Amino acid sequence: MPxxxxxxxxxGYRFERLCPMGETGENLTCPACGAKAPLRVMSAFxxxxxxxxxxSSCSSCTSTSCSTCSLK
Length: 72
Fold this sequence. Notes:
The protein is an all-beta fold and 72 residues long. The chain has a domain at 1-43. 0% of the residues lie in helices and 18% in strands. The chain has strands at residues 3-7, 14-18, 39-41. Strands 2-1-3 form a 3-stranded antiparallel beta sheet, with no helix packed on it. It comes from Ammonifex thiophilus. This is Zinc ribbon domain-containing protein. InterPro entries: Regulatory_FmdB_Zinc_ribbon. Residues 1-43 form the Putative regulatory protein FmdB zinc ribbon domain. Residues 49-72 are annotated as: Disordered.
C-alpha cells in the first residue's frame, strides 16, 4: 500500500496515511481537528545515489567521494 499525503480543508493540518491505491481522502478524517474528507496533495521527494561504474554521485560531479560533494 502506498503512503499518501493529505491536507485538512478546515485547519490546514498536513499528514501522511498508508492507504489502498487510489485513496482520495473522502473516507478519512483529520487527526488534528476531526474534519472529514481531507484533500490528497502531491508529495515532494528526492533521491540520491551513486551511478554504477562511475564512482560519482551525479553526472556533473568529478569527485569519487560523497564527503566532498557540494550538492549536500
